[in-house]
Amino acid sequence: MDYQNIFSSNAKKMKSSKIRELMKYASMPDVISFSGGIPDPQHFPYQAVSEIIQKWDDKKAQVAMQYGTTTGYPPLVNNLKKRMENLKNINLSGQDLMITSGGQQALFLVSRIFVDPNDCILVEGPSFIGGIAAFLSHQANPIEIPLEDDGINLTILEDKLKECQEKNIKIKFLYTIPNFQNPGGVTLSQEKRKKLYDLSLKYNLVILEDDPYGDLFFEGTPQDYQPIKALGNEAPIIYISSFSKILSPGLRLGWCVADHELIEKMALAKQSVDACSQSYGQIIANDYLEKNIIDDYVETMKKIYKHKKEFMVEEIKKYFPLSVKYTNPNGGFFIYLTLPDKISSEALFKKVIEKNVAFVTGDPFHIDKVEADKHIRLAYSNSSEEQIKEGIKIIGETIKSML
Question: 110, 189, 286, 306: which has the fewest Cβ within 10 Å?
Fold first, then answer.
């Protein structure tokens, strides 16, 4: 059977994520992998989750193993609403919250309700590969707006908005990761958050705010990393977050906060995708919130990830040439590096993988492929000190040899 003749146009454009292909190296013996932005599994709250499940009565166990509602387990929805109001200062008047099967599904559902083939959207350059993949799966036309040290370049953004307005081109939404951006590691300044909110009002621009790392800050207080959505509900802002970094990615649970009309439409889209997110994980997550386990766990992981980040930065300073530029994030999982002129990230990867070290090249994070080959992303979240020391030394010495 020649399936190419009957594949949809969407299917024909699908290709494997470069990160997923590189992740195969992470499971190979003796490979030091800085590829996957995954939590440190040694510190998952196994014991706490086990104790949660053991305390379930028959009624709760039955609910946990049954189908649930499309928008989510009601107690979890309510507890997340309280957390959004108290911790993130998001005003839920006129808003609603829906549980999704990971933050990735929320990105997919937003694409599904907004994007027609060839519709223009705006993304940061670089940006999260999962977001780009969700948008491209709906045949969007992404336009890259470069990042600066304090977040997206607002001058270039407004110029692009004016240009599209003059040409009568509708921008469906702007996708941004404001805290410890993946892969860039930068944080959108509070000043820029206010200006971005104003631009949303001025140009009637929907902002898709993806915040999976916002709780994992190394410096300051929660107020320093408040969502753009906390500035008000007059601007059309969709806020997404996830349990993947603050409980377990294996539960595949995220959530989305937006106005009622958008949540209703996303729920309709979700019904044709998976009908409902898994009840078992939702009840675990709800008990995890109600028993206040989450905050102690997050505080523990912040210290662990901060130490790993600081150790990697020190090793970069020790072994990398000064011509390599790198971000020094205030939270999250990633350091993004700009290589010296004429050093290709693809060529560098081919050399270091021969020495059993892996990272992610810049290619999957950029729409502008010329810019992409100048960069690599290093994830420190799932590496030991020994792995960081050895792996960074190998990458640094390889760059020096290529120079």
Answer: 189
